[in-house]
Protein: Sucrose phosphatase-like domain-containing protein
Organism: Seminavis robusta
Amino acid sequence: METSTPTTATPKGTIKDTIKVIFSDVDGTLVHYPKTIPDDDPLNNNNNNPIIRLPPSATGMQGIISSQTFAKCQQIRDTTPDTKLVLVSGMRTTTLLKRLPFLPKADAYCSEAGGRIFWSRPVSSSSNDNTFVVTPCNGATDLEPFEIVEDQEWRRRMQQTHAAGSDGYPSAELTTETTQPPQPQQVSKRSGALWEFAQKLLAKGLVLDTNGYATCFRINRKQQRQQQPQRNNNNNDDQLLFDQLLQGQILPCPPALATSTNLGCIDYYPMESGKLNCCRYVANKLLLLDNSNNNAEEDILSKHCVCLCDDDNDLEMALACQHAFIPGISSTSMANVIGKHPHHFSQTGGKHSNDGIEGTIATEQALSLVLARLAEG
């Protein structure tokens, strides 16, 4: 059985109140989405900071990331042997696996709003169907291949029937030799609190995005419009539907589940999941603390962690960490929280969702601030 322990960690009992773990969101934080992307390969230009294009997501969105973002993320990991970088995203796991060569190398990767955790490690001779080998893209700072393995303890928590159950996980998902993507059970046949709620929403006529998710599903406002053409020209109806879902007026979110908005969508996931719980678990594991109770170290994030983020689904993580760095603001809720807690946030850019090039500059500035904070010791 694959171990789910990270390859290196700080020896127990030697922790000081210094930054040990840097968490970063991906979309809107490290990766940005310009209105147009040049047709020619950005890596062919002669500047010192080429822009790298990621493969399109399942919904057709194509992001960009700068080579300086790669370099600064690597600098963060190289600050000390104990400094860890963790990417935490709401993206589906299938998208994460496709994007890994185009993302900065990290000590761990978390997908599905924190529902799944993968540790990175050097490629080993014992690699099998439970590991996924990643070859970084041209333009990455560290071109050495590595592999990821899923955290089995966290997976078992998510597979409990009061959480997501086990039916959403494809078999042999991580093998790099699969010619046909593995398919999980249909949503209508999945058990577990998450999917039972999904089935009820489907019965209400809502369109759910479940493709590539095992511990989370998403409701996209645009998909509701496509399904119900009478709302094609009425954005107010779309917003009303969104508000009704968030407020539980269509169907209340069960106590076993939690919800947040991300990229204009509503995500549902087990209460034990979410970025905050995921980050606390990962930090405890990286620092070799007790993880038998995920709330045992309530102040672990405030003492030893900072984060980079931009959206509503990052708020709990941002407020729990020692400090949050904001390359751009993607939601009104994030802007409101920054206004209430200005000293807790360092904002390097405004709303960059429509200007990817500006967004990469703001990201680099935020990463520079993180490096400066690390240099303070």
About this structure: The domain at 21-162+272-375 is CATH 3.40.50.1000 (Rossmann fold). The chain has eleven helices and 14 strands.
